[in-house]
Amino acid sequence: MSNRTIAKSFKAGDRDDTGLFADLDFICPLCDFENSKFILIGAKNFDKIDGDFETDQECDYCMKEIIVECR
User: Fold this and answer.
1) Any residues with CB less than 8 A from the CB of 38 and at least 6 apart, and which?
2) In sequence order, what are the residues at sequence separation of 6 or more whose Cβ sits closer than 8 angstroms to the Cβ of residue 36?
3) Numbers of helices and strands, H then E, in the chain
4) Does 1 score more than 80 pLDDT?
5) Domain boundaries, given as residue ranges, for the chain
6) How far apart are CA 9 and CA 12, in angstroms?
7) CA 13, CA 25: separation in Å to the nearest integer?
8) Per-residue model confidence (pLDDT) at position 48
9) Are the beta carbons of 66 and 31 closer than 8 angstroms?
10) CA-CA to 65 of 20 to 30 Å: which in 16, 28, 37, 55?
11) Which residues does 41 contact at the CB level (< 8 Å), separation at least 6?
């Protein structure tokens, strides 16, 4: 079974000099738990989130590391 999934939603907040906060929702491909994360993206990574990108997240239920694709 894969530890990769595609984000159900990704909503970035306003950018400032330090970074931005974003809401990220995904379903764990290992246990089917629906996760909602509030993540910080540093200003130096703005160029990476302007297109498709991946982020490593931990499932809140099974505690396994998941690679979430944000498109």
Assistant:
1) 21, 22, 23, 24
2) 23, 24, 25
3) 1, 6
4) no
5) 4-70
6) 10
7) 14
8) 87
9) no
10) 16
11) 12, 19, 20, 21, 22, 49
Share of the chain above pLDDT 70, in %: 99
8 in Cβ contact with 28 (< 8 Å): no
**Amino acid identity, position 66:** I
- What distance lies between CA 38 and its chain's CA centroid? 8
For 31-56, the DSSP string reads T-PEEEEEEEEEGGGHHHHTS-EEEE
pLDDT of 2 higher than 90: no
- Model pTM score: 0.89
